[in-house]
Amino acid sequence: MPIIACVTVGDFQENCYLYACPQTHHAVIIDPGDEAERILKRIQELELIPQYIINTHGHIDHIGAIDAVSAVYPVPLAIHPDDAVMYTDGQVAKLYGRSSPLVQRKPDILLKEGDRLAFGTLTLEVLHTPGHTPGGVCLVSRPYCVFSGDTLFHRSIGRTDLPGGDFEQIATSIRDKLYTLEDDLVVFPGHGAPTTILEEKYENPFVTVEE
Q: 192-203: per-residue pLDDT in tens?
């Protein structure tokens, strides 16, 4: 089984995930949002060898620790092009009292639907799932799990009342891209507890399976 570690960070209690091959310890860092020192400590405790930093989307609570983590692990940085602009959003930085740009690095990889990132024996497939943000993505690792960012949560979905949000879009993304995945995949969301595709298809009060 893969190595999966969740480090919940910052005021928004955002889930940063470390996902690694058990044979090689090659790993990805998904959404390093804050408290870089805690993320780095967990990487070192697990003796992981990061290969990529990946953003599911560009909101401040998911990108805030990128530069500090990159200073130790300068591996390729990946985000969907529609959200890459959020790295340098001066208005958001000012709103939260942060220095601008929020992320000094430029992305090395602009993700698109169907892209695959391989590390050790594992692969992540990119699903473009707009609705919470225009460039939101989910990352599928068969036969184990999907990292859903802020698209799908345990009995909830991502907010659509922020700039770039769209309820119809997120509902379509969830129904057409996530609910068509294997039922037993574990869903690791950007906030809160894990769930499964099967549970959300039938128990999520916001987006249900259309008969």
A: 999 999 999 999
